[in-house]
UniProtKB/TrEMBL annotation:
<feature type="region of interest" description="Disordered">
    <location>
        <begin position="1"/>
        <end position="25"/>
    </location>
</feature>
<feature type="compositionally biased region" description="Basic and acidic residues">
    <location>
        <begin position="8"/>
        <end position="25"/>
    </location>
</feature>
<keyword id="KW-0472">Membrane</keyword>
<keyword id="KW-0812">Transmembrane</keyword>
<protein>
    <submittedName>
        <fullName>Membrane protein</fullName>
    </submittedName>
</protein>
<dbReference type="InterPro" id="IPR021454">
    <property type="entry name" value="DUF3105"/>
</dbReference>
<dbReference type="Pfam" id="PF11303">
    <property type="entry name" value="DUF3105"/>
</dbReference>
<keyword id="KW-1133">Transmembrane helix</keyword>
<feature type="region of interest" description="Disordered">
    <location>
        <begin position="53"/>
        <end position="77"/>
    </location>
</feature>
<feature type="transmembrane region" description="Helical">
    <location>
        <begin position="31"/>
        <end position="52"/>
    </location>
</feature>
Amino acid sequence: MGSAKNSSEARKARVEEMRRAERSRERRNRFLTIGLSVVVVAGLAVGGTFLVRSQSDDGGGDTTASEGKDASGQFVTGDDGVRTWQGTLSQNHVNKTVDYPVTPPVGGDHNPVWQNCNGDVYTEAIKNEHAVHSLEHGAVWVTYNSQASEADVKALAEKVRSTPYSLMSPVDGQKDPLVLSAWGHQRTVKSASDPDVATFFETYVQGEQTPEPGAACTNGISETA
């Protein structure tokens, strides 16, 4: 009982810390935007281009795809039911449609702009290239197809809305009704009440698999496909 309580309290503290970090980044971005606007008005940045959206990415703004496949390998399923990608997941920024080897994708080349993932629930499909960038930032992506029950979709949406570094959207091309994805990891769940949902969130929201921990989940894109 005590262990469960301590785990719950640690989870709450972790979420609150992420919220504080997100608010801090938002304030920093607002100040940066204002500062850049002043510079532009003053005419001191003639010919310059400011990419405010990409300032939080240590990966830079490379828009040239690497030669060869952006993701090569295969899933290996563990005893816990989580499929882990064994192989290469490149992290290049590209302004093109990427042909991912699995649906939904769990990594690889992606758009320079991430999909907003601060508990964002999308009722229409989003572009894989933006969602993969969110996974790179440590988000968990909840997806569902037309076979998912309305009750499960509603319950999972509530879970996502209360969890920073998560997002949700429909993906008609996926095989199973309910799928949870993180960078390099994925699993199906039977329902919203499946205990594996909480376990996956606890493990992979800003988990050890995150290539860019602490990177923003706001100030990205909220557009659907």
